[in-house]
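Chapter review. Work through the record for ATP synthase subunit delta before attempting the end-of-chapter questions.
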Amino acid sequence: MGSATTQALAATTTALGAASGVDLDVARELFAAARAVGDSSQLSGALADSAAPVAARRKVVADVFGRAVKPTTASLLTTAVEQRWSSADDLVDAIEELAIRAAAVATPAAELDEELFRFSRTIAGNPELELALGSRVGDTAAKRALVETLLSGRANDATTLIASSLVQQPRERRIRQLLSRATRIVADQRGRKVATVYSASPISDAQSTRLAAALSQRYGAAVSLNTVVDPTVIGGLRVQIADDVIDASVSSRLADVRQRLAG
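Structure tokens for ATP synthase subunit delta:
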């Protein structure tokens, strides 16, 4: 991610925080806008062209989206195109991120990150499902309908919106990767980090509480845990937070011993 994009993302996130009337309709419209911009190289190029006057980029947003979306959505899209992006793809990613954050804002009481994580584990355990949702030649409407059916009655409407929207525009990304990114974005919007904990057997509530407290102290933010039972860990824990990995597993120590013995 380029420095221009980093600054632009900060500006769009701030704009969302200051916006009023953010609901699931706004999130839905932002997802649709991300698909429209991502599907048109001409549109994405025009909106991400930092050499073009800002007024011209605003006019494109007004002409393409102005009457079709709510004022809050139009305002957020305008803020996005006013920024300087490192690439057109970064602009599309940013609009998608705004949509995910808007869904989190619209449903403050829902555990969206936990539901997204559970859905990603369901996909991980079903290769046929992952193939069906990740196929580049699959019908997007069919993918959306499949996700909606799978999550009906099992997840919040915001979770369903996020997951069903992401599968419609994977853009060379794996479905589990998309869901993991969405999980991190939702957690960040709510001021916390997400740790994925791998263990050979389920960890107790007391262990979860102690681990979450230790990680919160280390990272200076509230940390929520998603746990995965992985027999290959053998014993101990492996914890991943974003790009950080804390590996205190027996399998890791055994691998280290084998490596030393080999040479």
